[in-house]
Amino acid sequence: MKIGIIGSGGREHAICHSLKKSNKINKIFCFPGNAGTAQFAENIILDLDNFETLKDFIIENRIDLIIVGPEKPLVDGLVDYLETFNIKVFGPNKIASQLEGSKIFTKQLCEKYKIPTAKFGVFENKNDSKNFLKNSKFPIVIKADNLASGKGVYICDNKDEAHTAIDEIFNGKFGIAKNLLIEEFLDGEEMSFFIISDGVNIKKFGTAQDHKRVLEGDKGKNTGGMGAYSPSRLISDELEKKIMNKIINPTLKGLSELGSQYKGFLYAGLMIIDNEPYLIEYNVRMGDPECQTILPKLETDLVEVFLACCDQTLDTVVLNWSNKKSLCIVVCSKGYPDTFKKNIEIKNLEEINLEVNDYLFHAGTLKKNEKTFAIGGRVLNFISLSDDFRLAKNNILKNINELNWPDGFYRKDIGYKVIK
Ligand code: AMP
Ligand code: GLY
Fold first, then answer.
1. What is the 385 CA–ligand 1 centroid distance (Å)?
2. Mapping DSSP to helix (H, G, I), strand (E, B) and coil, where does residue 215 land?
3. 290 CB less than 6 Å from ligand 2?
4. Whose CA, among 71, 209, 302, 414, lies 20 to 30 Å from 47?
């Protein structure tokens, strides 16, 4: 069969790599992919905001299944659109994607179904927001409602910082803002929890911890993710039951009462406080770099998993996982997440000797005239699976040293909480 993957990051390269292992696959198209996916897929450049062009390409090329990697096309309703043309698509529809597209939608769902989350208020203008702060304790969290690529969240230590956040959001820094959210600060340890669902059946899809800040010690600006490890050190059977019963199941029930069955990956960003889970946010997709970290552990044919989700037969598929530990370090362009140079050649890629449990997934790369160039902030993902996190990290550092790319940088402390 022929498969199409939407997206261009490390997540999509990891998905492409897992799919390629299946004997059911004849051809993979990536829209638009990167230099890594170009090794075994055909990269296609189309305007992804133009659903019609994409639909025409899918039909002309008889693509059997589309996998949507990133959130934007999901929130914009790509799944709903393609399904009206009887195209099989893996990913949630527009209503369900509001779980990521609107923080207020999610908070209201939490309220209705008593899902544990930070206490919050919704405010429609600068004055009401600032008045509320007069009686608030700090730190406090202020969030833009709309998709802001992880950047619309402010943790404010005092009133001045909070006022700056409110002004920036209502002045349109993240697009037109009708309202914002002010939230209680939750003090605990974060964990990413993943499930996959066909709308009726749910399977767990691993846990991870990512490192979002650019500097070592989890300091500095937020990024898309500088590295991750799986599993999270916090997970236990008891905690998993609480997450399913208190958070995931009521969410999916709430969506189905809105007439939307959830098909796709669902990523719950949680804060764990005294072994109790609180929902911070939902993402309606796999995390990046969590996907690169978790997928190499999957032993079941991923094509079968995706097809079962589209056919609502996920109950018949057994997900087998390696019980190794997985760690991922992201190599970025110097300057990221601020300005960085583009079109810098990455030499030495062929010098890297990947062992059996090592993986290299591309993100912001482009192949031109047989050479590979960095064109994005996050450039390469190095992953290793091992019996312990320290060994995994050592394998990765060996591979990054072999790359020896002077224009890149990476965090050397990924996984510090699990590597003593
Ligand atoms: P989000 O985009 O909602 O995941 O927020 C980005 C990051 O801000 C999260 O990964 C947390 O580290 C932090 N954060 C968000 N909401 C809260 C909260 N209520 N309490 C503490 N930290 C938070
Ligand atoms: N790693 C965080 C995210 O994918 O949103």
1. 28
2. strand
3. yes
4. 302
